[in-house]
Amino acid sequence: MICGHRGLALLLAVLCMPFMAAAQCTVKGVLYDEDNGEAIPFANVVLDGTAHGAATDLNGFFLINRVPAGTYTLRVRYVGYDEYTETFTLSGRQTLTKSIRLKSRARQLESVVVTESRSEERRSQTQVSVEKITASQIQQMPSIGGQGDLAQYLQVLPGVNSTGDQGGQLYIRGGSMIQNLCMLDGMIVYNPFHSIGLYSVFETDIILNANVFTGGFGAEYGGRLSSVMDITTRDGNKRRHSGKVGFNTFGASALLEGPLKRETATGKSTVTYILSAKNSYLSKTSASLYPYTDNGLPYDFLDLYGKLSVNSGSGSKISFFGFRFDDSVSQYQAIADYHWRNYGMGTNFVLVTGTSSLLEGTMAYSDYRIELDDGSGRERHSGINGFNMNIGVTNFHGNSKMRYGIAMEQYSTDYSFYNAYNLRTTQEEHTNNISLYMTYHTQRGKWLLDPGVRYIYYSSLSEGSFEPRLALKHNATDRLRFKLAGGFYSQVFLDARSDNDIVNLFNGFLTGSGDLNKPGTFRGENTNGCVQRAQHLIVGIEYDFTRHLNVNIEAYYKRFKQLLNANHNKMYDRNDAAYTTPGSAYYKEQYYLTDYMIEDGVAYGLDMTLCYDIDRLYVWATYSLGNVERTDEIQTYHPHYDRRHTVNLMVSYALGRQREWEISARWSYGSGFPFTQTQGVYEQLSSGRIAHDYTTTNGSHGVYYAALYGGRLPDYHRLDIGAKRKFSVGSRSLLEVSLGVTNVYNRKNMFYFDRMTFERVNQLPFLWSAGMNFSF
Question: Can you give the pTM of this predicted structure?
Answer without folding.
Answer: 0.86
